[in-house]
Design brief:
heterodimer, A: alpha+beta, Elongation Factor Tu (Ef-tu), domain 3, 2 domains, 20 strands, globular, B: alpha+beta, OB fold (Dihydrolipoamide Acetyltransferase, E2P)
Protein backbone atom coordinates (compact mmCIF):
# COMPACT_ATOMS: atom_id res chain seq x y z
CA UNK A 1 0.00 0.00 0.00
CA UNK A 2 1.46 3.32 -0.96
CA UNK A 3 0.27 6.64 0.37
CA UNK A 4 -2.76 8.16 -1.19
CA UNK A 5 -1.97 9.39 -4.57
CA UNK A 6 -4.52 8.86 -7.22
CA UNK A 7 -5.65 11.66 -9.37
CA UNK A 8 -8.21 14.33 -8.88
CA UNK A 9 -10.00 14.02 -12.15
CA UNK A 10 -12.87 15.52 -10.29
CA UNK A 11 -13.06 18.91 -11.93
CA UNK A 12 -14.26 21.09 -9.10
CA UNK A 13 -10.94 21.31 -7.34
CA UNK A 14 -7.52 21.95 -8.63
CA UNK A 15 -5.03 20.72 -6.12
CA UNK A 16 -1.37 20.46 -6.88
CA UNK A 17 -1.69 21.34 -10.53
CA UNK A 18 -3.74 18.34 -11.48
CA UNK A 19 -6.23 20.16 -13.68
CA UNK A 20 -4.24 19.04 -16.67
CA UNK A 21 -5.37 15.50 -15.93
CA UNK A 22 -8.17 15.80 -18.44
CA UNK A 23 -6.22 17.61 -21.13
CA UNK A 24 -7.02 17.82 -23.91
CA UNK A 25 -10.47 18.15 -22.44
CA UNK A 26 -13.03 18.65 -25.11
CA UNK A 27 -16.29 19.74 -23.69
CA UNK A 28 -19.12 19.57 -26.15
CA UNK A 29 -20.66 22.99 -26.11
CA UNK A 30 -17.31 24.62 -25.57
CA UNK A 31 -14.85 24.82 -28.41
CA UNK A 32 -11.35 23.80 -27.33
CA UNK A 33 -8.24 25.81 -27.91
CA UNK A 34 -7.29 24.94 -31.42
CA UNK A 35 -4.00 23.45 -32.40
CA UNK A 36 -2.80 22.81 -28.87
CA UNK A 37 -2.38 19.30 -27.59
CA UNK A 38 -1.59 17.70 -24.28
CA UNK A 39 1.82 16.62 -25.52
CA UNK A 40 2.70 20.21 -26.40
CA UNK A 41 1.83 21.17 -22.84
CA UNK A 42 3.94 18.35 -21.47
CA UNK A 43 6.94 19.20 -23.59
CA UNK A 44 6.75 22.88 -22.78
CA UNK A 45 6.34 22.55 -19.07
CA UNK A 46 9.61 20.77 -18.30
CA UNK A 47 7.94 17.85 -16.58
CA UNK A 48 10.02 15.02 -15.22
CA UNK A 49 9.64 11.57 -16.72
CA UNK A 50 9.80 8.23 -14.98
CA UNK A 51 12.12 5.57 -16.37
CA UNK A 52 9.03 3.86 -17.85
CA UNK A 53 8.02 6.88 -19.94
CA UNK A 54 8.91 5.34 -23.29
CA UNK A 55 7.03 2.17 -22.40
CA UNK A 56 3.89 4.18 -21.52
CA UNK A 57 4.04 5.99 -24.85
CA UNK A 58 4.62 2.70 -26.67
CA UNK A 59 1.58 1.22 -24.92
CA UNK A 60 -0.54 4.13 -26.18
CA UNK A 61 -0.97 5.92 -22.86
CA UNK A 62 -2.48 9.37 -22.65
CA UNK A 63 0.19 11.26 -20.70
CA UNK A 64 -0.78 14.13 -18.40
CA UNK A 65 1.08 16.35 -15.94
CA UNK A 66 0.83 15.05 -12.38
CA UNK A 67 2.86 16.33 -9.42
CA UNK A 68 5.59 17.57 -11.74
CA UNK A 69 5.77 14.34 -13.77
CA UNK A 70 4.35 13.26 -17.09
CA UNK A 71 2.23 10.28 -16.05
CA UNK A 72 -0.19 7.92 -17.84
CA UNK A 73 -3.79 8.83 -16.97
CA UNK A 74 -5.16 6.01 -19.13
CA UNK A 75 -4.19 3.49 -21.76
CA UNK A 76 -6.23 2.56 -24.84
CA UNK A 77 -8.37 0.21 -22.70
CA UNK A 78 -9.92 3.25 -20.98
CA UNK A 79 -10.52 4.10 -17.33
CA UNK A 80 -13.62 1.96 -16.83
CA UNK A 81 -12.19 -1.25 -18.31
CA UNK A 82 -8.82 -0.70 -16.62
CA UNK A 83 -10.57 -0.44 -13.27
CA UNK A 84 -12.57 -3.63 -13.84
CA UNK A 85 -9.52 -5.47 -15.17
CA UNK A 86 -7.58 -4.67 -12.00
CA UNK A 87 -10.41 -6.07 -9.87
CA UNK A 88 -10.76 -9.19 -12.05
CA UNK A 89 -7.15 -10.03 -12.90
CA UNK A 90 -4.08 -7.84 -12.31
CA UNK A 91 -3.11 -4.25 -13.05
CA UNK A 92 0.37 -2.78 -13.36
CA UNK A 93 0.84 0.82 -12.18
CA UNK A 94 3.90 3.04 -12.55
CA UNK A 95 4.23 4.90 -9.26
CA UNK A 96 7.89 5.82 -9.75
CA UNK A 97 7.08 9.48 -9.19
CA UNK A 98 6.64 8.75 -5.49
CA UNK A 99 9.55 9.35 -3.15
CA UNK A 100 11.57 6.39 -1.84
CA UNK A 101 13.63 7.33 1.18
CA UNK A 102 15.98 5.45 3.49
CA UNK A 103 16.22 6.54 7.14
CA UNK A 104 19.28 4.98 8.73
CA UNK A 105 20.49 5.62 12.28
CA UNK A 106 24.21 6.35 12.50
CA UNK A 107 24.34 3.99 15.48
CA UNK A 108 23.45 1.22 13.05
CA UNK A 109 20.46 0.25 15.22
CA UNK A 110 17.08 0.42 13.42
CA UNK A 111 15.44 1.09 16.80
CA UNK A 112 17.24 4.43 16.92
CA UNK A 113 15.83 5.30 13.49
CA UNK A 114 12.37 4.22 14.70
CA UNK A 115 12.69 6.34 17.85
CA UNK A 116 13.74 9.34 15.75
CA UNK A 117 10.96 9.00 13.17
CA UNK A 118 8.41 8.54 15.97
CA UNK A 119 8.98 12.24 16.76
CA UNK A 120 7.36 13.09 13.40
CA UNK A 121 4.56 10.50 13.09
CA UNK A 122 1.92 9.29 15.59
CA UNK A 123 2.71 5.69 14.70
CA UNK A 124 4.28 2.87 16.76
CA UNK A 125 7.54 2.26 14.91
CA UNK A 126 9.48 0.63 17.74
CA UNK A 127 6.80 -2.04 17.67
CA UNK A 128 7.13 -2.53 13.92
CA UNK A 129 8.88 -5.84 13.36
CA UNK A 130 11.59 -6.49 10.84
CA UNK A 131 10.11 -7.16 7.41
CA UNK A 132 6.84 -5.40 8.25
CA UNK A 133 5.29 -2.18 6.96
CA UNK A 134 2.90 0.35 8.43
CA UNK A 135 0.83 3.30 7.18
CA UNK A 136 1.43 6.65 8.85
CA UNK A 137 1.36 10.39 8.45
CA UNK A 138 3.57 13.40 9.14
CA UNK A 139 1.66 15.84 11.33
CA UNK A 140 2.04 19.56 11.97
CA UNK A 141 1.74 21.42 15.27
CA UNK A 142 -2.02 21.84 14.77
CA UNK A 143 -2.41 18.08 14.29
CA UNK A 144 -2.94 18.49 10.54
CA UNK A 145 -1.52 16.01 8.04
CA UNK A 146 1.57 17.14 6.09
CA UNK A 147 1.61 13.93 4.05
CA UNK A 148 0.73 10.28 4.40
CA UNK A 149 3.36 7.63 3.93
CA UNK A 150 4.34 3.99 4.25
CA UNK A 151 7.12 2.98 6.63
CA UNK A 152 8.88 -0.39 6.47
CA UNK A 153 11.37 -1.94 8.90
CA UNK A 154 14.13 -3.36 6.69
CA UNK A 155 16.22 -4.73 9.52
CA UNK A 156 19.03 -2.19 9.57
CA UNK A 157 17.07 0.85 8.34
CA UNK A 158 13.58 2.22 7.75
CA UNK A 159 12.30 2.43 4.18
CA UNK A 160 9.79 5.22 3.63
CA UNK A 161 7.54 5.89 0.60
CA UNK A 162 5.98 9.36 0.31
CA UNK A 163 3.71 11.16 -2.16
CA UNK A 164 5.29 12.76 -5.22
CA UNK A 165 3.78 16.18 -4.65
CA UNK A 166 5.12 16.29 -1.08
CA UNK A 167 8.42 14.47 -1.40
CA UNK A 168 10.76 17.48 -1.44
CA UNK A 169 9.06 18.92 1.64
CA UNK A 170 8.93 15.53 3.36
CA UNK A 171 12.63 14.90 2.84
CA UNK A 172 13.52 18.41 4.05
CA UNK A 173 11.27 17.84 7.07
CA UNK A 174 12.98 14.55 7.95
CA UNK A 175 16.46 15.97 7.40
CA UNK A 176 15.66 18.99 9.59
CA UNK A 177 14.42 16.86 12.48
CA UNK A 178 16.31 13.57 12.27
CA UNK A 179 19.82 14.59 11.19
CA UNK A 180 21.23 14.52 14.74
CA UNK A 181 20.97 10.75 14.78
CA UNK A 182 20.03 9.60 11.29
CA UNK A 183 20.99 9.84 7.64
CA UNK A 184 18.01 10.56 5.39
CA UNK A 185 18.66 9.53 1.78
CA UNK A 186 16.35 9.66 -1.20
CA UNK A 187 16.78 6.65 -3.50
CA UNK A 188 16.96 8.55 -6.76
CA UNK A 189 17.92 5.62 -8.95
CA UNK A 190 14.93 3.41 -8.32
CA UNK A 191 11.52 3.01 -9.92
CA UNK A 192 8.38 1.85 -8.11
CA UNK A 193 5.81 -0.46 -9.68
CA UNK A 194 2.52 -1.59 -8.18
CA UNK A 195 0.96 -4.86 -9.27
CA UNK A 196 -2.59 -5.12 -7.95
CA UNK A 197 -5.46 -7.54 -8.24
CA UNK A 198 -6.47 -11.14 -7.53
CA UNK A 199 -3.93 -12.53 -10.02
CA UNK A 200 -1.06 -10.27 -8.92
CA UNK A 201 0.52 -13.06 -6.87
CA UNK A 202 0.28 -15.54 -9.75
CA UNK A 203 1.94 -13.13 -12.17
CA UNK A 204 4.70 -11.91 -9.85
CA UNK A 205 5.48 -15.37 -8.46
CA UNK A 206 6.61 -16.44 -11.93
CA UNK A 207 9.46 -13.95 -11.59
CA UNK A 208 9.88 -13.90 -7.80
CA UNK A 209 8.56 -17.19 -6.30
CA UNK A 210 9.15 -15.91 -2.74
CA UNK A 211 6.17 -13.53 -2.94
CA UNK A 212 3.68 -16.38 -2.59
CA UNK A 213 4.63 -16.75 1.08
CA UNK A 214 4.14 -13.05 1.91
CA UNK A 215 1.22 -11.71 3.95
CA UNK A 216 -0.39 -8.26 3.74
CA UNK A 217 2.16 -5.58 4.74
CA UNK A 218 5.15 -7.96 4.67
CA UNK A 219 8.29 -6.51 3.07
CA UNK A 220 11.17 -8.53 1.61
CA UNK A 221 14.37 -7.84 -0.27
CA UNK A 222 15.22 -10.23 -3.10
CA UNK A 223 17.74 -10.34 -5.90
CA UNK A 224 16.39 -10.89 -9.40
CA UNK A 225 17.44 -10.67 -13.02
CA UNK A 226 16.15 -7.06 -12.85
CA UNK A 227 18.37 -6.17 -9.91
CA UNK A 228 17.84 -6.02 -6.15
CA UNK A 229 14.10 -5.66 -5.47
CA UNK A 230 12.30 -4.45 -2.36
CA UNK A 231 8.79 -5.89 -2.43
CA UNK A 232 5.89 -5.13 -0.08
CA UNK A 233 2.55 -6.94 -0.15
CA UNK A 234 0.47 -3.80 -0.22
CA UNK A 235 -1.04 -1.25 -2.53
CA UNK A 236 -3.70 1.40 -2.83
CA UNK A 237 -6.57 -0.24 -4.67
CA UNK A 238 -8.24 -2.38 -1.98
CA UNK A 239 -6.94 -5.45 -3.82
CA UNK A 240 -4.29 -7.92 -2.81
CA UNK A 241 -1.07 -6.97 -4.53
CA UNK A 242 2.51 -5.81 -4.36
CA UNK A 243 4.64 -2.71 -4.61
CA UNK A 244 8.04 -3.35 -6.12
CA UNK A 245 11.02 -1.03 -5.79
CA UNK A 246 13.42 -1.81 -8.63
CA UNK A 247 16.63 -0.18 -9.91
CA UNK A 248 15.93 2.14 -12.87
CA UNK A 249 18.03 -0.07 -15.12
CA UNK A 250 15.85 -3.12 -14.46
CA UNK A 251 12.47 -1.37 -14.30
CA UNK A 252 11.49 -1.46 -18.01
CA UNK A 253 12.47 -5.13 -18.21
CA UNK A 254 10.46 -6.00 -15.10
CA UNK A 255 7.44 -4.04 -16.34
CA UNK A 256 7.59 -5.76 -19.73
CA UNK A 257 8.00 -9.19 -18.14
CA UNK A 258 4.92 -8.60 -15.98
CA UNK A 259 2.90 -7.25 -18.92
CA UNK A 260 3.72 -10.40 -20.87
CA UNK A 261 1.61 -12.34 -18.39
CA UNK A 262 -1.90 -12.69 -19.83
CA UNK A 263 -3.50 -11.53 -16.58
CA UNK A 264 -1.63 -8.23 -16.42
CA UNK A 265 -2.66 -4.96 -18.08
CA UNK A 266 -1.22 -1.47 -17.58
CA UNK A 267 -3.46 0.82 -15.51
CA UNK A 268 -3.36 4.62 -15.45
CA UNK A 269 -3.95 7.24 -12.79
CA UNK A 270 -7.61 7.58 -13.78
CA UNK A 271 -8.51 4.05 -12.71
CA UNK A 272 -6.12 4.33 -9.76
CA UNK A 273 -8.39 7.10 -8.46
CA UNK A 274 -11.67 5.15 -8.78
CA UNK A 275 -10.02 2.03 -7.34
CA UNK A 276 -8.71 3.81 -4.24
CA UNK A 277 -12.01 5.63 -3.75
CA UNK A 278 -14.03 2.37 -3.85
CA UNK A 279 -11.53 1.07 -1.27
CA UNK A 280 -12.26 4.11 0.95
CA UNK A 281 -8.63 5.29 0.81
CA UNK A 282 -7.64 8.94 1.13
CA UNK A 283 -6.06 11.02 -1.60
CA UNK A 284 -3.59 13.45 -0.08
CA UNK A 285 -4.45 17.02 -1.11
CA UNK A 286 -8.13 16.15 -1.50
CA UNK A 287 -9.40 14.03 1.40
CA UNK A 288 -6.59 14.87 3.79
CA UNK A 289 -4.27 17.86 4.05
CA UNK A 290 -2.61 20.19 6.56
CA UNK A 291 -6.05 21.28 7.83
CA UNK A 292 -7.38 17.80 8.62
CA UNK A 293 -6.23 15.72 11.59
CA UNK A 294 -5.87 11.92 11.45
CA UNK A 295 -8.88 11.63 13.79
CA UNK A 296 -11.09 13.85 11.63
CA UNK A 297 -9.89 11.85 8.62
CA UNK A 298 -11.03 8.59 10.28
CA UNK A 299 -7.44 7.33 10.29
CA UNK A 300 -7.51 6.69 14.03
CA UNK A 301 -6.68 3.01 13.31
CA UNK A 302 -3.22 4.14 12.14
CA UNK A 303 -2.35 5.43 15.64
CA UNK A 304 -1.39 2.41 17.71
CA UNK A 305 -2.05 2.12 21.45
CA UNK A 306 1.58 2.88 22.38
CA UNK A 307 1.28 6.40 20.95
CA UNK A 308 -2.18 7.22 22.33
CA UNK A 309 -2.87 8.94 25.66
CA UNK A 310 -1.96 6.47 28.39
CA UNK A 311 0.25 4.44 26.04
CA UNK A 312 3.89 3.47 26.60
CA UNK A 313 5.18 6.28 24.36
CA UNK A 314 2.17 8.60 24.20
CA UNK A 315 2.45 11.85 22.29
CA UNK A 316 5.89 13.10 21.33
CA UNK A 317 4.95 14.03 17.75
CA UNK A 318 3.83 17.39 16.31
CA UNK A 319 0.23 18.22 17.23
CA UNK A 320 0.04 15.47 19.85
CA UNK A 321 -1.98 17.72 22.18
CA UNK A 322 -4.67 18.30 19.55
CA UNK A 323 -4.73 14.70 18.34
CA UNK A 324 -4.60 13.30 21.88
CA UNK A 325 -7.64 15.37 22.87
CA UNK A 326 -9.54 14.26 19.77
CA UNK A 327 -8.63 10.63 20.52
CA UNK A 328 -10.18 11.02 23.96
CA UNK A 329 -13.15 13.24 23.18
CA UNK A 330 -13.75 12.72 19.48
CA UNK A 331 -13.44 15.24 16.66
CA UNK A 332 -16.07 17.79 15.67
CA UNK A 333 -16.14 16.48 12.10
CA UNK A 334 -15.37 13.18 10.42
CA UNK A 335 -14.54 11.85 6.98
CA UNK A 336 -17.34 9.57 5.79
CA UNK A 337 -18.39 7.68 2.71
CA UNK A 338 -21.33 9.09 0.78
CA UNK A 339 -23.61 7.40 -1.77
CA UNK A 340 -25.42 9.81 -4.11
CA UNK A 341 -28.89 8.84 -5.31
CA UNK A 342 -29.08 7.86 -8.98
CA UNK A 343 -26.12 7.68 -11.33
CA UNK A 344 -24.66 11.20 -11.29
CA UNK A 345 -21.29 11.48 -9.50
CA UNK A 346 -21.08 14.18 -6.82
CA UNK A 347 -17.52 15.42 -7.13
CA UNK A 348 -14.97 17.15 -4.91
CA UNK A 349 -16.00 20.61 -3.77
CA UNK A 350 -19.75 19.97 -3.63
CA UNK A 351 -21.32 21.48 -0.50
CA UNK A 352 -23.29 19.18 1.82
CA UNK A 353 -26.53 20.16 3.52
CA UNK A 354 -28.65 18.59 6.26
CA UNK A 355 -31.96 19.52 4.61
CA UNK A 356 -33.46 19.68 1.13
CA UNK A 357 -34.00 23.42 1.52
CA UNK A 358 -32.41 26.22 3.51
CA UNK A 359 -29.63 26.15 6.04
CA UNK A 360 -25.91 26.69 5.65
CA UNK A 361 -23.62 23.96 4.32
CA UNK A 362 -22.72 21.41 7.01
CA UNK A 363 -19.81 19.85 5.15
CA UNK A 364 -18.07 19.32 1.86
CA UNK A 365 -17.32 16.51 -0.58
CA UNK A 366 -13.56 15.89 -0.95
CA UNK A 367 -13.58 13.09 -3.56
CA UNK A 368 -16.26 11.87 -5.90
CA UNK A 369 -16.45 9.62 -8.92
CA UNK A 370 -18.39 6.81 -10.51
CA UNK A 371 -17.42 3.42 -9.08
CA UNK A 372 -17.16 0.92 -11.94
CA UNK A 373 -17.25 -2.09 -9.58
CA UNK A 374 -19.85 -0.48 -7.34
CA UNK A 375 -21.86 0.34 -10.49
CA UNK A 376 -22.87 3.54 -8.76
CA UNK A 377 -21.45 6.93 -7.91
CA UNK A 378 -19.54 7.33 -4.65
CA UNK A 379 -18.05 10.22 -2.71
CA UNK A 380 -16.15 10.94 0.47
CA UNK A 381 -16.43 14.10 2.50
CA UNK A 382 -16.46 15.69 5.93
CA UNK A 383 -19.60 15.96 8.06
CA UNK A 384 -20.17 17.13 11.65
CA UNK A 385 -20.29 14.69 14.52
CA UNK A 386 -23.89 13.47 14.86
CA UNK A 387 -24.41 13.36 11.10
CA UNK A 388 -21.73 10.76 10.47
CA UNK A 389 -23.71 7.56 11.10
CA UNK A 390 -24.15 5.32 8.03
CA UNK A 391 -27.67 5.74 6.73
CA UNK A 392 -27.89 9.45 7.58
CA UNK A 393 -29.76 11.22 4.77
CA UNK A 394 -28.04 14.38 3.55
CA UNK A 395 -28.09 16.54 0.43
CA UNK A 396 -25.29 17.64 -1.86
CA UNK A 397 -25.20 20.57 -4.22
CA UNK A 398 -25.31 19.09 -7.72
CA UNK A 399 -25.39 21.75 -10.43
CA UNK A 400 -27.31 24.12 -8.17
CA UNK A 401 -29.85 21.58 -6.90
CA UNK A 402 -29.93 19.70 -3.60
CA UNK A 403 -29.36 16.07 -4.50
CA UNK A 404 -30.03 13.26 -1.99
CA UNK A 405 -26.85 11.60 -0.72
CA UNK A 406 -26.55 9.04 2.09
CA UNK A 407 -23.73 8.54 4.59
CA UNK A 408 -22.22 5.13 3.91
CA UNK A 409 -19.73 2.84 5.60
CA UNK A 410 -16.22 2.69 4.11
CA UNK A 411 -14.86 0.93 2.16
CA UNK A 412 -17.62 0.96 -0.46
CA UNK A 413 -16.69 -2.60 -1.39
CA UNK A 414 -14.84 -5.08 0.84
CA UNK A 415 -11.06 -5.02 0.52
CA UNK A 416 -9.39 -8.29 -0.42
CA UNK A 417 -6.01 -8.01 1.29
CA UNK A 418 -4.20 -11.29 2.00
CA UNK A 419 -4.04 -11.14 5.80
CA UNK B 1 -24.05 14.55 -41.62
CA UNK B 2 -23.14 18.03 -40.36
CA UNK B 3 -20.78 18.95 -37.54
CA UNK B 4 -20.35 21.84 -35.09
CA UNK B 5 -17.21 23.25 -33.51
CA UNK B 6 -18.64 21.98 -30.22
CA UNK B 7 -18.13 18.41 -31.50
CA UNK B 8 -21.77 17.60 -32.11
CA UNK B 9 -23.10 15.89 -35.21
CA UNK B 10 -26.49 16.50 -36.82
CA UNK B 11 -28.19 14.08 -39.18
CA UNK B 12 -31.45 14.73 -41.02
CA UNK B 13 -33.97 11.92 -40.63
CA UNK B 14 -37.25 12.61 -42.42
CA UNK B 15 -38.34 16.03 -41.12
CA UNK B 16 -36.28 15.80 -37.90
CA UNK B 17 -32.64 16.37 -37.00
CA UNK B 18 -30.87 13.78 -34.84
CA UNK B 19 -28.09 15.13 -32.59
CA UNK B 20 -25.17 13.40 -30.89
CA UNK B 21 -21.50 13.93 -30.07
CA UNK B 22 -18.68 12.91 -32.36
CA UNK B 23 -16.44 9.89 -31.95
CA UNK B 24 -13.58 12.32 -31.30
CA UNK B 25 -15.49 13.99 -28.45
CA UNK B 26 -16.55 10.66 -26.96
CA UNK B 27 -12.97 9.48 -27.00
CA UNK B 28 -11.70 12.65 -25.35
CA UNK B 29 -14.40 12.58 -22.68
CA UNK B 30 -13.68 8.98 -21.75
CA UNK B 31 -16.26 6.49 -20.53
CA UNK B 32 -19.62 8.14 -19.88
CA UNK B 33 -21.27 7.19 -16.60
CA UNK B 34 -24.29 9.52 -16.45
CA UNK B 35 -26.60 11.23 -18.92
CA UNK B 36 -29.40 13.65 -18.03
CA UNK B 37 -31.76 14.29 -20.94
CA UNK B 38 -34.16 17.20 -21.50
CA UNK B 39 -37.96 16.84 -21.47
CA UNK B 40 -39.53 15.98 -24.79
CA UNK B 41 -41.48 18.94 -26.16
CA UNK B 42 -39.07 21.54 -24.77
CA UNK B 43 -38.39 24.54 -26.99
CA UNK B 44 -34.72 25.43 -26.99
CA UNK B 45 -32.53 28.12 -28.50
CA UNK B 46 -29.06 27.67 -29.92
CA UNK B 47 -26.33 27.29 -27.25
CA UNK B 48 -28.86 26.55 -24.50
CA UNK B 49 -27.66 23.72 -22.21
CA UNK B 50 -29.89 20.75 -22.89
CA UNK B 51 -28.00 17.65 -21.79
CA UNK B 52 -25.71 17.01 -18.83
CA UNK B 53 -23.17 14.25 -19.24
CA UNK B 54 -20.63 12.92 -16.78
CA UNK B 55 -17.67 10.86 -17.81
CA UNK B 56 -15.17 9.13 -15.57
CA UNK B 57 -13.28 12.41 -15.80
CA UNK B 58 -15.70 15.31 -15.48
CA UNK B 59 -19.12 16.79 -16.04
CA UNK B 60 -19.93 18.47 -19.34
CA UNK B 61 -22.90 20.17 -20.94
CA UNK B 62 -24.23 19.64 -24.40
CA UNK B 63 -25.83 22.72 -25.91
CA UNK B 64 -28.59 22.88 -28.47
CA UNK B 65 -26.79 23.27 -31.82
CA UNK B 66 -29.73 25.18 -33.34
CA UNK B 67 -33.11 26.69 -32.35
CA UNK B 68 -35.99 24.23 -32.29
CA UNK B 69 -38.13 21.78 -30.36
CA UNK B 70 -36.79 18.65 -28.64
CA UNK B 71 -39.28 16.07 -29.89
CA UNK B 72 -37.61 12.84 -28.79
CA UNK B 73 -34.76 11.82 -26.47
CA UNK B 74 -32.73 8.60 -26.37
CA UNK B 75 -33.91 7.17 -23.05
CA UNK B 76 -31.64 4.14 -23.45
CA UNK B 77 -28.67 6.36 -22.51
CA UNK B 78 -30.00 6.92 -18.99
CA UNK B 79 -29.49 3.27 -18.05
CA UNK B 80 -26.55 2.69 -20.37
CA UNK B 81 -24.44 5.83 -20.91
CA UNK B 82 -21.70 3.61 -22.39
CA UNK B 83 -23.73 3.51 -25.63
CA UNK B 84 -22.27 6.93 -26.39
CA UNK B 85 -18.72 5.55 -26.28
CA UNK B 86 -19.62 2.35 -28.10
CA UNK B 87 -21.55 3.90 -30.97
CA UNK B 88 -21.43 7.71 -30.80
CA UNK B 89 -22.95 8.33 -34.23
CA UNK B 90 -25.49 5.49 -34.05
CA UNK B 91 -27.14 4.09 -30.90
CA UNK B 92 -25.44 6.81 -28.85
CA UNK B 93 -27.60 9.65 -30.24
CA UNK B 94 -28.95 12.13 -27.66
CA UNK B 95 -32.09 13.80 -29.00
CA UNK B 96 -34.14 14.61 -32.10
CA UNK B 97 -35.15 18.19 -32.89
CA UNK B 98 -37.79 19.77 -35.08
CA UNK B 99 -36.41 22.90 -36.74
CA UNK B 100 -38.33 25.89 -38.03
CA UNK B 101 -35.73 26.40 -40.68
CA UNK B 102 -33.56 23.55 -41.86
CA UNK B 103 -31.32 25.93 -43.81
CA UNK B 104 -29.48 26.93 -40.59
CA UNK B 105 -27.50 23.72 -41.06
CA UNK B 106 -26.17 24.78 -44.45
CA UNK B 107 -23.25 26.69 -42.97
CA UNK B 108 -22.11 23.86 -40.69
CA UNK B 109 -19.04 21.74 -41.41
CA UNK B 110 -19.28 18.55 -43.41
CA UNK B 111 -17.28 15.51 -42.33
CA UNK B 112 -14.13 16.44 -44.26
CA UNK B 113 -14.16 19.95 -42.79
CA UNK B 114 -14.72 18.60 -39.28
CA UNK B 115 -11.85 16.12 -39.56
CA UNK B 116 -9.65 19.00 -40.66
CA UNK B 117 -10.97 21.09 -37.75
CA UNK B 118 -9.92 18.50 -35.16
CA UNK B 119 -6.62 18.02 -36.95
Amino acid sequence: MSPAEGIAISGARDRGGMSGAVAPMIVPGHAPERGRTAMDDLQQSGLQQTVLHDLHVELGAKMVPFAGYAMPVQYPMGVMKEHLHCRAAAGLFDVSHMGQVVVRARSGDVADAARALETLVPVDLLGLGEGRQRYGMFTNDAGGILDDLMIANRGDHLFVVVNAACKAADIAHMKAHLSDTCDVTELGGRALLALQGPLAETALAEIVPQVAAMRFMDVIGVSSQFGALTISRSGYTGEDGFEISVPNGGAPGLAEALLEHEAVAPIGLGARDSLRLEAGLCLYGSDIDATTTPIEAALTWAIQKARRPGGAREGGYPGADVIGLQLTEGAARTRVGLRPEGRAPVRAGAALFAAAEGGAPIGVVTSGAYGPSLEAPMSMGYVPRGLDTPGTALFADLRGKRHPITVSALPFRPNTFKR
Amino acid sequence: MKFTEEHEWLRVEDDLVVVGITEHAAEQLGDLVFVELPDEGRMVVKDEEVVVIESVKAASDIMAPVDGEIVEVNGALVDNPALVNEDPTGDGWFFKMKLEDMSVMDDMMDEAEYLKFIG
